[in-house]
Amino acid sequence: MKIKTMLFYAIPIILGGCIPIMSINPFYKDSDVMFEQKLVGTWLQDMNEPDTTWIFSRSEEEPNKAYHLTFIDKEGGKGSYTAVLMKLENKLFFDVYPDKMPWETEDSNSIKLPYNTFFLVPAHTIIKVDAIEPKLVLRLTISNKFKELIEEHPNEIEYQEGEDTIVLKSSTKELQAFIIKYSQDERMFPDAITLEREKK
Prior knowledge:
- It contains 2 helices and 11 strands.
- The protein has helices spanning 143-152, 172-182, and strands at 22-23, 41-44, 52-58, 67-73, 78-88, 91-98, 125-131, 136-140, 159-161, 166-168, 191-197.
């Protein structure tokens, strides 16, 4: 099985096709998880002509304090995720992973989650939260940028490189240590996405 067959490609559409890093293990421990009510609601990438819409609601599933995140592109394609907000050394991050697989319904087209169809297992990705108010500012990873970073520090984290993807295989503890150490490196979280709350 090729590595890229186990990854999800919903988030890359935001970055024009760039692929984020993925991890087999979560980036959070239960003690890191928090809930911020201010995140709940609908956020738009472009208020005049939205490129993407992010809808956060409180999840009724495990883990405790998690969000349900629905991602919608401008063509109406959707992704459905669990988003866990965590704090690592006073910095906020989301651990995001799919909460539905396309075969979990009798008619996969009926739920219209084309971005979930690239999964065979629910891999995790990480998003840095720069700000929540007055705008939600997020930073995603990009595999080709991250590759430059880990090639400089090949012994600090375990990973497997696919055709155009990077899959992290380290433990949660090791992942957190690496993220904290290099969170300010522009190759870790290179590009910001700014979202504005939908006006009622």
